[in-house]
Design goal:
The complex is a heterodimer of chains A (about 325) and B (about 290). Chain A has about 325 residues and is mainly alpha-helical. Chain A has 14 helices and two strands. The chains are: A mainly alpha (about 325), B mainly alpha (about 290).
């Protein structure tokens, strides 16, 4: 039987039985979906919807009936609107803003998270591109190197973080190395209010770079060879080729990777919880840690949900930007 | 030999171009940076407590204290932690792979009412961070009596939208003509899924299996919230407990950390090809 003979017959059949088929197909399709969808609906979809509702309630655990609708109270409380408002009246808009970001828990958590993101994302990307470029050259043992660079991503956070914590201790190997270089930092990194944040950034970049290297490697291999050939004919040297061929060709990947990284950075919890637990003081307090502490240490579920909504809104904004830009990039 | 001399020798011989050597220096330097914590971890795990932060530090312990590795099993129920983690990881991986490839078939190859809306619901929740809805989920699970039970972590992880999304993307690249032909030959939809789609999607399944397994094995926050009794703890939370209770036994903490890394290392090294290809093609993770 030739392909040509089958196709028209198949199409005619499909048209003829469409409505009956559709009903039957819908039932069959639901039977395929049900096992996953039931679990998905109960454990993901419903909680997602409830999380919005919960941020407007007050509940300290115990009986579900004791949950109370409090309107915007939780939001007023996390933004400390009364205090911030009076500061604004007293010191002007920026004075109030300054108070929010230096005294209010949410402001501090936001500031820390944003700072962490702004530093970690570009550093991770640069390291990832560097790794990918080096590995993309035909080198012996590329597979071994690739596996090595990738390994931190697979290793569990608890083991990694506690190991880095020890390495960054007062008498640890990193400080000994710095001493050999003439820098005397006689303190545990995680006990210092500036260096604690950098310790977390270091571990995050160290862990992220291998993962994004893999993505960049795939993108590099997808760049058409002719582009480089044309550039060589035009007399471009290696650096010029990198700047005018490689980087522009990698732009969609960079965009995608930075979105993923930004979202990942905003959700940071494990590293902070294990390495510093938000300290010293509130120097490394991040959004998710704040949610966790309010919910599971202080049992302020409503308040914690309101903070979770702040996180959700930030992540959604980033996602919307991603979607609106994606069309632009795919046209290229 | 000085570097200048070395360079001269090399460029005159034309055997090892200087660029290649520089390339290897960069490669090795980066590999050292990546591996140093692990080397330090192993080295410290074989030392005595007071040797860990000795000055100047030694990378190779004076004597190898292998007994550290037997000590940790007496201090905490590591075996129980391992068992719990393995049960959770295997169950989650199995349920996740099976149900998502099932659901993905419907999304990719069947026409039915409400398909697009349902798929949008799946995709929409991928964008919502788990941390934003973990509280209602926690309350819901607790009211269902799942608190402090391994089952809680299983259902938490097993029905992720990510799995469905990944498998659906893969199934869409399988020609629909194949399904049509099978339908004409009288194969039911279940038959098509089992006998055509599954065998053709081993690469995607391998990716999903590895992602899910390693993700579940390394999950910290979930077990941290849900599992409180010691006999229910996973290796991550157990390790954390060990660290808090023996905070100055650096050598033992490092030994326990090394042990906790062994299973994932084996899985990664044996399946790394699929892992890395999976990321390269799908590009994302939930």
């Amino acid at each position: 039987m030739t392909v040509n003979a089958v196709q028209p017959a198949g199409r005619a059949r499909k048209k003829y039985r469409m409505s009956r088929l559709e009903r039957k197909n819908t039932l069959i399709a639901y039977s395929f979906l049900a096992p996953n969808f039931i679990g998905f609906a109960i454990f993901t979809l419903i909680p997602v919807v409830l999380s919005v509702v919960m941020s407007f309630t007050e509940w300290k655990g115990g009986d579900l009936a004791s949950m109370q609708w409090v309107g915007l109270d939780n939001y007023a409380s996390i933004f400390n609107s009364a205090k911030v408002g009076s500061k604004m009246a007293e010191l002007g808009f920026f004075g109030g803003l300054d108070y929010f970001f230096s005294k209010v828990d949410l402001g501090i958590a936001l500031k820390n998270t944003v700072f962490f993101t702004i530093v970690t994302v570009p550093l991770s990307l640069i390291c990832a591109i560097l790794l990918a470029l080096v590995l993309n050259k035909a080198v012996r043992g590329a597979v071994v190197f690739r596996a090595i660079y990738f390994f931190p991503y697979v290793a569990s956070m608890v083991a990694i973080c506690v190991c880095w914590n020890f390495m960054l201790m007062k008498n640890g190997p990193i400080n000994q190395l710095l001493m050999a270089l003439g820098i005397n930092f006689n303190k545990s990194w995680t006990a210092d209010s500036t260096m604690a944040m950098w310790a977390i950034i270091l571990v995050s970049v160290w862990r992220n770079m291998g993962y994004y290297m893999v993505i960049y490697l795939a993108a590099l291999q997808g760049i058409p060879r002719e582009l480089y050939e044309a550039a060589t004919v035009d007399g471009a040297n290696k650096w010029q080729q990198f700047r005018s061929v490689t980087l522009p060709q990698l732009r969609p990947t960079t965009f995608f990777a930075s979105i993923m990284l930004i979202i990942g950075c905003f959700k940071i919890y494990d590293t902070v919880a294990i390495m510093t637990n938000g300290g010293p003081g509130r120097a490394t307090k991040m959004l998710v840690l704040y949610i966790f502490q309010e919910a599971f240490n202080n049992y302020h579920y409503g308040l914690a949900s309101a903070i979770a909504m702040v996180l959700l809104i930030v992540v959604l904004i980033v996602t919307v930007i991603q979607f609106s830009m994606e069309g632009k990039y795919s046209n290229n | 030999m000085t570097t200048a001399k070395l360079r001269k020798n090399i460029s005159s011989e034309h055997r090892f171009p200087i660029g290649k050597i520089l390339l290897y220096i960069v490669l090795i330097a980066l590999a050292v940076f990546t591996l140093i914590p692990f080397v330090w971890m192993i080295s410290s795990s074989l030392k005595l407590d007071r040797e860990v932060f000795s000055y100047p530090m030694r990378w190779i312990p004076e004597t190898f204290h292998w007994e550290n590795y037997s000590l940790i099993w007496q201090k905490v129920p590591m075996l129980t932690y391992f068992k719990n983690t393995a049960i959770i990881a295997v169950c989650v991986t199995f349920i996740q792979t099976l149900t998502s490839s099932f659901a993905a078939y419907a999304f990719a190859k069947l026409r039915f009412r409400g398909r697009d809306i349902l798929f949008l619901a799946y995709i929409g929740t991928i964008a919502v961070p788990w941390q934003a809805y973990m509280l209602p989920q926690f309350i819901l699970m607790r009211s269902m009596g799942l608190y402090d039970r391994l089952l809680a972590i299983m259902v938490l992880q097993a029905f992720s939208a990510f799995g469905v999304f990944l498998m659906r993307q893969f199934y869409q690249n399988i020609p629909t003509d194949l399904c049509e032909a099978a339908r004409i030959d009288g194969l039911s939809e279940y038959g098509i899924w089992a006998r055509i789609m599954l065998p053709l999607s081993t690469a995607a399944i391998a990716t999903l299996v590895i992602f899910t397994f390693i993700g579940t094995w390394n999950d910290y926050m979930g077990p941290m919230i849900y599992l409180t009794r010691d006999e229910n703890k996973t290796i991550q939370v157990g390790l954390r407990r060990f660290i808090q209770e023996n905070s100055s036994d650096y050598h033992l903490i490092m030994a326990a950390s090394v042990v906790s890394l062994i299973p994932v290392s084996i899985v990664f090294l044996s399946l790394q090809k699929y892992f890395i290809e999976g990321i390269a093609t799908s590009g994302l993770k939930g």
